[in-house]
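Hi R.,

Here are the chain sequences for the assembly we discussed:
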Amino acid sequence: MKKKVRIIPGFGLSMGVTLSLLSLIVLIPLASLVVFTAKMSPSEIWHVITRKRVLASFEVSLLTALIASLINAVMGVVLAWVLVRYDFPLKRLLDGMIELPFALPTAVAGISLTSLYADTGTVGKIFAKFGIKIAYTRIGITIALIFIGIPFVVRSVQPVLEKLDPLYEEAAGMLGASRVQTFRKVILPELRPAIFTGFGLAFGRCLGEYGSVVFIAGNQPFKTEITPLIIMAELQEYDYSSATAIALVMLAVAFLILFLVNLIQIHNSKILNGGH
Amino acid sequence: MAKETQSQTVGAKPSPVVKWLLIGLSVLFLFVMLVLPLITVIQEALRKGFAAYREAISDPDAFSALNLTLEATVFAVVINTVFGLFAAWAVTKFRFHGKKLLVTLIDLPVTVSPIIAGLIYVLTFGRQSAIYPFLEEHDLRVVYAVPGIILATVFVTFPFISRELLPVLEAQGTDEEEAAAMMGAKGFTIFRKITLPHIRWALLYGIVLCTARAMGEFGAVSVLSGHLRGQTVTLPLQVEILFGDNKYMPAFAVSSILVILAVVILIVRSIVEYIGKEKK
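And here is the predicted structure of the full complex:
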């Protein structure tokens, strides 16, 4: 503690408002989850989360979120690269569009993607000719999750790429490195923490996503049923214990992802601060 | 392929083929993933002509859904702005133990799945809760009622404004406020004259993001709504109900209201961000 006396006024008031609102809106409701969990025995929880249908939903959720986030990681780097390094007409429009998945309500995205990718839809029709069904399959879920995850990697890579000094690339070029080599050995290592951060955030968001997925998923048990949907179904049947048990698994995974993202960020800022 | 052949001859110079290939790929990706869904909404909404569209959006259920959505959004923006300002002030202007923990807890709601956000409110205020008898006695309904919808909306957007303010205030430091306080300025005067000008654009930016998310929230609101038509249905839920009833054209017509709001929000966001950068 550097200063014992607080010169700026308002500590008590601002802290008071902050803590009371935080408690009312976040902490007390979350605590009720803990209280409710405490009433259940571990074997009861284990029994719920190892039901075949629940396990299948974990698989669907993890797999689709993983594939969607991987595609977004690659496309995110491409988009960030294009937006930072190149000049072309309508670039500002393209840049402004990236946030659309944040601004557009997920339910609207959901029904729109469903009608686009159904067998009779504009895009679905093309794939249907080759016998590929998109809507109401895991591919459909993945498409919805790609939509949701677009902004994360772009927005975390973009600022790093903007700050990256082109001097290193020039040096690499002078020393005879090809553009591909320069990208792999000079640029990519600098971007890697930002890519992982964006990937982690997108992955976390995709795991919990509900609105855009329920319409396109078809929601067939064991095949296209995501975990949030199972929780929703349990709630509709007033089975709060099952809903809570499954929610605990999801929360654990979400916190694990958050923890890993924070680790990367701390590691990253150490490198950045050490370098200067 | 083009990348490989180009790189051998050009060396350090970026090749135009790679450039236009990557731009083309980006444009194609964004067109298919973002623009096509928007076009689809408008196209489907107007499928049966403009008269049918007008009839669909002037449906009383759609109107009451719009009202509830606006109500929940206003609550979310007001509560989260008040919270964001106080929290950002507390975290950046003072030193205290547990600051990291506080910031982590504030950010918690965005990492929680919307469905779980709904679940925790059902557990807190629902029939099996310890305070349910008390609520019952005073005729307060939260679950499957408007207060639940508002609470859920506030929860999912909780850190949106404080998160925008924190980095700006952190970078600004405390010197100016300390100087003002030493010269005898009162807390609110310091805030209004010194702090507010610094954070004006970040605050506006946060409000825009909060509005966008609040009006579009689906999962958490869906858990707490009970789907009573004309009473506890927000615009996104109205879209779900219509789509579920195979009323595709009306579903897209109602969606088009949300699409217009989303596009307006994106434009305002870009303007705010642009002016904010210019001011720096």
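Residues 7 and 13 of chain B are 8 Å apart (CA to CA). Residues 49-279 of chain B form a domain with the MetI-like fold fold (CATH 1.10.3720.10).

Let me know if anything looks off.

Best,
T.
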